[in-house]
Amino acid sequence: MTIRLLLADDQELVRLGLRMVLGTFDDLDVVGEAADGEQAVTETRRLVPDVVLMDIRMPGTDGITATARITETRPGTRVLVLTTFEEDEYVFGALRAGAAGFLLKDASRDKLVEAIRVVHQGDSLLSPAVTRRLIEVFSRRPQPVPVSTATERLTARERETLVQVARGRSNAEIGVILHVTEATVKTHVSSVLLKLGLRDRVQAVVFAYENGLVVAGQDD
């Protein structure tokens, strides 16, 4: 199956570079480009890509606003945000906007392609580096928020799983920590998302920090 891609970045050379790199893979097809957020929304509506590679800082309508509009109107299209360490303040906003994944702009070609395939399959991707930045943002909050009563719907094991997801750990790593199989972890994650009404793993991370289930700066 070919994955249809839309490239949204205000720098033409960046779009050209991405097109050249991604064009070498048989299962990837760049069907369009956008130079700003508004154009990204318009082209998504017109071309119906599977995945949008979204820059955050663009003139006019920025990547966060564009991501929110795309995920609201085209839920079948996944948004993979390309970010840099200098844009940390935007990461949380993009998370809440519904982005399916985050990748640093200095990531390797293989990491980029893997990320595209992961989000296209319906999974979410939040790199450890971006997770650390997210934790740093929450660590600057003066007071932790109360734990949400919504977590009462979770079993003890599901709650433990959510905590580990929020700390940026993979299913395999969580399995080792909780002494269960990776398949069991996947089952727990799916149950957490269903019970809390969350779309994906990325939203689970946001939920855990926003609702006080995980406090930045504190370990397990």
Automatic annotation (TrEMBL):
Matching Gene3D superfamilies = 3.40.50.2300
* Record-annotated Response regulatory domain positions: 4-120
Give UniProt keywords alphabetically.
DNA-binding, Phosphoprotein, Transcription, Transcription regulation
Molecular function, one GO term: DNA binding
Mind telling me which InterPro entries this protein's record contains? CheY-like_superfamily (IPR011006), NreC/VraR/RcsB-like_REC (IPR058245), Sig_transdc_resp-reg_C-effctor (IPR016032), Sig_transdc_resp-reg_receiver (IPR001789), Tscrpt_reg_LuxR_C (IPR000792), WalR-like (IPR039420)
Q: Which domain of life is it from?
A: Bacteria
Q: Which residues carry this modification: 4-aspartylphosphate?
A: D55
The residue ranges of the HTH luxR-type domain are: 147-212
Q: What is this protein called?
A: DNA-binding NarL/FixJ family response regulator
Species this chain originates from: Kineosporia succinea
